[in-house]
Design brief:
The complex is a heterodimer of chains A (226) and B (380). Chain A contains six helices and ten strands, in the order αββααβββαβββββαα. Chain A has 226 residues and is α+β, with helices and mostly antiparallel strands. The longest helix of chain A has 24 residues. By secondary structure, chain B is of the alpha+beta class. In chain B, α2 packs antiparallel against α4, α6 runs antiparallel to α8 and α8 packs antiparallel against α9. Classes of the chains: A alpha+beta (226), B alpha+beta (380).
Chain lengths: 226, 380
Amino acid sequence: MRSSRRNSGRLAVVVALIVAAGAGVSGHRLDEYLQAARISLAPDRVQIELDLTPGIALAESIGREIDRDGSGAISPDEAAAYAEAVRHALRLAIDGTPIAPELVDSRFPMPEAMRAGEGMIRLHFAAPLPRLGAGAHELRYRNAHHPDIGVYLANALVPESSRVLITGQERDVDQRDLTIAYVLQPEPALGARLWLLGVVTSTLTLLFLVRRRHRPRAKSDSQGEE
Amino acid sequence: MRIRTGLFLLASIGLVLAVSNAGLAQRGSSILLASTPAATTARIVAAAQAVVATLDEAGRAKVQFPFDGPQKTRWSNLPSGIFQRQGLRLGDLTPAQRTAVMSLLSTALSQEGYRKVTEIMRGDEVLRTADGGGASRGGAAPAGVAPGGAPAPGAPAGGRARGGRGGGGGVIFGQDEYFLAFVGTPSTSTPWMLQFGGHHLAINLTLAGSQASMTPSLQAAQPAIYTFEGREIRPLGRENDKGFELINALDAAARSQAILGYQVSDLVLGPGQDGRVIQPEGVRASTLSPAQQNLLMEIVREWAGIAHESFAEPRMAQLRANLPDTYFAWSGPTTNGSVMYYRIQGPTLVIEYAPQGTVDHIHTIYRDPTNDYGAKLAAK
């Protein structure tokens, strides 16, 4: 408790200094809640990395939202509860069909770091995609977490799979809403792969036989001369 | 009379030739001075060793970090008090030590790069002194870096305030709050990194013999315009003006492709976003005219040209070769003086220019997703 009060005191000093600086470090998010999403698409899965950075003037209130028992520390349960609240604020849909992201990993900063404005909450969500046919598809992402104070970034990462080809990104002006248009290339079929293997094997065998047939027979020729 | 005129003409021609020759010779010597990348690395290593020679044992321990340790990626745009840097703090150095550090920077960077770095630092000093933005830890804060980069005559060396640092004790601005670190031992053959940074600045220069990489690095400015010795200083003014020049040089079709229909309020690939590659957006440079492509390359030079010319020129050649696959994206109004954002992205390049809600506070980032922290060089 004493630690919490001391931290609050320090926060007050920090905020006071920033306010004294006028614009000061307001660029370092004074009263905005930056929420930056990076979305990676695979043929069968979508992943969302979401970084949440409360501005220094918001750190106390966001901190209270997370630290529900006011202990000054973020317990695993409190972290899980906050991540769940964020998850509920996310909307994902593939070709118009909603899909539910699940929390994969979460990292919360030390409360003191967050109160000092340094703390970034990193959440990692993922959702399996239904079996999709080759062709054009659309993934829609929407973030409605703290729209009152939120400032948003949303970007698709370059897909690791060569089967996924992003063809466009559409956003609303605030970047709360992002629609990723992409083309899913057909999966190389097993039959096609076996056919290719057969062709290569046959060609190599033929080459071997042809070379063997044309090889000079030194021993039998000398026998003939005798 | 004719003979006299002829002699006069001959003498004049001779004089002109002599002067031209001297000029060429001088230029030739400066070309020689620009030298090869390997020679530049050798000079940087010598300057780094000169810094080390000014330090005592404690100072040497502070400046040196292992090449494969966490220090490599430990940088930020944030000021001291919010972000705790490690290394040699300028405010803790004697004038001689500080001079050695600034001399190292001037050796490692181009003239233009060094100007930019010192103007960013000076801007932070303006933030500290004019806006009351935090007290220096040293109590009696030195003016620090003079126009040439050396400590101002008579400036105290600064020092540590009571109670140490960090821990939320306050945001601290000013020229004292910049840190030097060597990640790996300075060497003319094996990879190492010269790391210098503070509020609004992160220089990560990885050197490996004749090769170098200066990514990722961050340049930012607040205030973006200030007056120093009667001159208006804009540390990132060219980046702003050249951006507007290009967007306004595009025809309607190219401009409509370049301009994004949404706000971008911060860097997408700022600190902490190593290794990520976002899907490129905007207009593809291959569709631009040669003149427009040249304007784009001139913007790129503002970042690639921070490093010493020996390293900047090969880098520029690489980026020009990749130009057909490079994109230019813009968000915001196109009238100079407006708050806007732009991004240049190619196979080996990401540049972002992101005002923080005001034209007086700019953040930028410069990356090579294939070679950040000299990954390719270290792998060789």
